[in-house]
Every structure is written in C-alpha cells, then in structure tokens.
Amino acid sequence: MKELSCLASQVQASSTMAIDALAKQMKADGVDVIGFGAGEPDFNTPEHIKAAAIQAITGNVTRYTPASGTVELKKAVCARMKADCGVDYKPTQVVVSSGAKHCVYIALRALVNPGDEVILPAPFWVSYLELIKMVGAQPVVVTAQESAGFKMSAQQLRDAITPKTKALILNNPSNPTGMVYSREELEAIAQVCLEHDVYIIADEIYYSLLYDGVKFTSVASLGEEVRKHTILINGVSKAYAMTGWRIGYALADEAVAKVMGNYLSHSTGSPCAISQAASVAALNGPQDEVETMRQAFEARRDYIVERMNSIPGVSCIKPEGAFYVMMNIEQLLGKTICGETIHTCDDFSSAFLKHGLVATVPCSGFGAPNFVRWSYATSMENIQKGLDRLEQFLAGKEH
C-alpha cells in the first residue's frame, strides 16, 4: 500500500488526553484514582444556558446554520468581547466553529503556507505544536524560563523572527503555566510583530479566570494596527463550564474572517445549532456564575500553591490565571521512588499514577521537560487528597 500522508504521520497524540484516558480507565476498573489531567471546569453548565438549549430543541432549532455561525451568536460575541475586553468587532468579523482549538487550526489554515514559520513560546499548550505541523508550517519554539515567570520577552521574539516568520501564537492567560502578560509586556511584543508584519494568533480563552486583582489586557485592544494583525481566539468552554458544547469563535479582519469561513464551509460546515443557541444565552445572560467559579478556582489555587511549596523535592510559582500549576521536579530527577527511577517528567507521572494513584500531566509535550502540570479544576477535597498522596509517594510509600 502507498504511504500515508507525511504531514499526518508527524502528528502526535495529545499527552493530556492520553493521561486522562488512562486515569478514567483505571477508575472504570475500580481503582481509586484522583485525576488532575484534563483542563475543564468541574462545575455544571449554568441552568439558564441548559434551558436555552432545551428551548432550541423544542423550537426545532435543529437545522444547518451558516457555516461560520448564526448572526445572533456573532452579535452576542461582539457584545461580550466589547464589554469584557474593550475590543470592537462587527459580526462579519466573527467566525464560529467547533471549539477554540478548531479556531486555532482554521486561523493557521487561513494564514500559513507550507514552509512558513510560526513562533511558539514554551511552555505551550500541547496542541499548538501539532496544529502548526498539521498545516505544513515549521514551529519555532522560544523557551520562557520559570525565572522569567514563563513569559517570553519582546527581545526573545525579535531574535526568533526570520524572513519566513508568518505568525506568533500567544496564549494569555497561559495553559499550562497560568501566567498572564501585562499590558506593557503585550505592547512590547505587539510592536515587534508590527515591525516585522507578523500575525498574532491570540488565544485568550482563559481571560475571565484571573486572580489577585490582576487586570486582563486583550492584545487586540492595543490599537487599530495591532487589531488588524490579530486573530483573536475565544469560546464558551472555560468561562461557562461548556467544554462539551464545542463552541469557539475567532475575531479577525474581514478578509481573514472570510477565508476562515470559506474553509469551514467545505470542511465541517456549521457548528451545532443547539450549542450555538445555548452560547447566545451564555454570552448575553447573567455573568454572576462566571465570577462564582473564578472565586472557587482562586481559593483552590491558593491552597495548592502553598501546600505544594511546603513539600520537599518539588516547587511551583504562583499562577495568575487559568486553572493550572506547573510543578518543578528538577530535584527528583535521578532519584528512585517506590522502586522507580525518575529520569524524566514522563517517568514521574507514570510512577505517580502507578504507585500514588494520582494522574498528572508530564510537560515534555508542552516544551517544559522538568515540569508536571496539575489542573486544579477539581474539588478542594480531591486537591487535598492528591497532595496527601504526593507527600506519601515522595516518601516512598505506596497508596
């Protein structure tokens, strides 16, 4: 048989999905596993959003919509982005698709030619690297050190740009680090992009989850020229606990939005009509439950950071947003725990799951090989138990 696509063959499975699937299988087999893997809120979708979906079903809102989303949802997106992020867009500049990840892919499809370079700050969300490769582009990874708050500097960006550079993927607040770029840091990065005519694919899906009074700045709000160079990525999954509803959206200059819409029309067609109706209710309705969830995440973050930094052998810096913490395991490398030698973060996560019954995500796939990601989008009870098991595991005790 002829060989498979060389582009498709380069794509690796998601490490976050793999660890989550393994933990779920162990749970199904009756093993008492605590999962800190997948990045989705543990809260239920608010009732008024579910009610809107039920109303859509009973009202027969079950047919195809325009490929890039309904006008009603696009208007709701524009209004919410204006209210929350201070950015002005028209409905014709909005593209709705099946999740924010899908929007990143479609944005890359609209912008990138095979052989172009896309700059990716590390640590990065595992899918970004694969998405870049899927469109035939070359990822250029720029490592941001823990000592720099896991944030890429404008000078690092400038040094990475070549004549082949087409775009930068900027995730703010960040998955997996939870760190947030300040307005001043974004202004410096945006200025470099303007100087070199580089697009910014700005994934701001966690913008509503910030802590300690940190103020969010959307890169698209930094001026008209910056906005024209930006493809803004967002969605309803994190803020409204709607991961399974699969609605994301991109906001861009009309020429870019048109190309993205054309691509959607021939690849997936429209997103789910019922999910779109529910998303309108989410964006237009009361936002108090978003704040309730944010406060819960902040309390969990405070506990997990303080407790983790009190455990010998591991450490973390305090994230400013999202719901992840990066645990530094450098002190554990080369050591033997519960009969397992820890050479890498993958070794640690595998041994911790096997002997401690806790699922975490090794960050080798995130461009941070000496770190393990914990998601605190789980109950405080689970967080406490998970950290108890971490202490026991590091002491060489089986759970």
Mean pLDDT over all positions: 96
SS-derived structural category: alpha/beta
Q: How many domains?
A: 2
Q: What is the level-2 CATH architecture name of the largest domain? A: 3-Layer(aba) Sandwich
- Name the CATH homologous superfamily of the largest domain: Type I PLP-dependent aspartate aminotransferase-like (Major domain)
Biggest beta-sheet profile:
7 strands, mixed
Look at the structure and give the CATH class of the largest domain.
Answer: Alpha Beta
Give the count of helical stretches: 14
Number of strands: 14
How is the largest sheet built, in terms of strand order? 2-8-7-6-5-3-4
Shape: globular
Using only C-alpha atoms, the radius of gyration works out to 21 Å
Task: Quote the beta fraction.
Answer: 5-15%
What helical percentage do the residues reach?
A: 40-55%
The CATH topology of the largest domain turns out to be: Aspartate Aminotransferase, domain 2
What is the helix/strand order? HHEHHEHEHEHEHEHEEHHHEEEHEEEH
Taking pLDDT < 50 over at least 5 consecutive residues as the criterion, the unreliable ranges are none
Which helices and strands appear, and what pairs or packs with what?
Elements: H1 6-10, H2 15-28, E1 34-35, H3 47-58, H4 71-85, E2 94-97, H5 100-111, E3 117-122, H6 126-134, E4 138-143, H7 154-160, E5 165-171, H8 183-195, E6 199-203, H9 224-228, E7 230-235, E8 248-251, H10 254-267, H11 273-284, H12 288-308, E9 324-328, E10 336-337, E11 340-341, H13 345-356, E12 358-359, E13 361-362, E14 371-375, H14 380-394
Parallel strand pairs: 1-12, 3-4, 3-5, 5-6, 6-7
Antiparallel strand pairs: 2-8, 7-8, 9-14, 10-11, 13-14
